Amino acid sequence: MKIPHGTGQYYLILLSFYKAGMKMYYPLPTGSPGGEVSVKVDVSMAVMDDVKAVIGEALQISDRVQSFDESTALLGSIPELDSMAVVTIITALEEQFDFIVDDDEISAETFETLGSLSAFVEQKM
User: Fold this and answer.
1) Global pTM value
2) Residues near 28 by Cβ (< 8 Å), separated by ≥ 6?
3) DSSP state of 50
4) CA 13 to CA 27: how far, in whole Å?
5) Phi-psi region of 76 (alpha: psi -120 to 50; beta: other; left: phi over 0)
6) What is the pLDDT of residues 39-48, one digit of tens each?
7) Strand 2-3 and strand 11-17: pairing?
């Protein structure tokens, strides 16, 4: 992407990740030279953060979910995560990421860890 020269202004690069359904703005410092700009965004981490937010809201554990990482066990390790909560999380993920989950696509392995659930979401997008 080409960025024009400018002084005293910040240029905003709008990166649209339609697949992930999010928009991110990156300011460039004042006096940045024009030219090619390369911005690398780890979509997996962004998806995982969104999945954590959905889990936190659905289970009302937003304070605890912030410390979760890819290997955090979910099913059987979080008391709030019962069968009804699984349905609530699936529905919230469908709404958040605009996809549909068929009954035969979900298994206990999907909810084994935060990483496995995030990978499932990425695969559905």
Assistant:
1) 0.65
2) 3, 10, 11, 12, 13, 37
3) H
4) 7
5) left
6) 444 448 889 9
7) unpaired
